[in-house]
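Example 3.2
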Amino acid sequence: MISRDEAWALLTRYNQEAFHLRHARVVEGVMRYFALSLGYEGEADFWALVGLLHDLDFERYPEEHCVRQQQIMRENGVDERLIRATASHGYGITVDIEPLHEMERVLYAVDELTGLIGAVALMRPSKSVMDLEVSSVRKKYKSANFAAGCSREVIERGAAMLGWELDALIGKTILAMRSLEETMAGEEEG
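Structure, written as tokens:
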């Protein structure tokens, strides 16, 4: 299995924009949080790697997202299980790899949602998820023009795949993002 350092080196070979690198780290942390909270403690590192590498090709190859990264990962000897898991979040958009494992469904559901929650947090005086509530996210969620790049359809499909109500998915994802905010803020300052 690829190490976290090797995964980061691969990610930064194809991504340089601070926004994309931060998103990768947020999804990495959120995936680790969900692995731990859903009873997959032994798989937490794997879930985190899936989160870190899920958008490997997006910055350079947005039109081939989830397609090109499979090729890149294979060329770099990445495990097929990780390749499948990362590609599955493009299901119905760019690939026909259906999210089957709970981990794949979590990634599918939280990828877009973390972006939306992050955008809502930036609109707050605190610029933080620490005081963010589900109702604030739902209010902005209803506005199609707000964070328009975050697909509500994908978020809702992801919640349905997991068998969760949308508010439950939002609430759990807020908690996951809270768990990393302090760590990420300290690293960005340093």
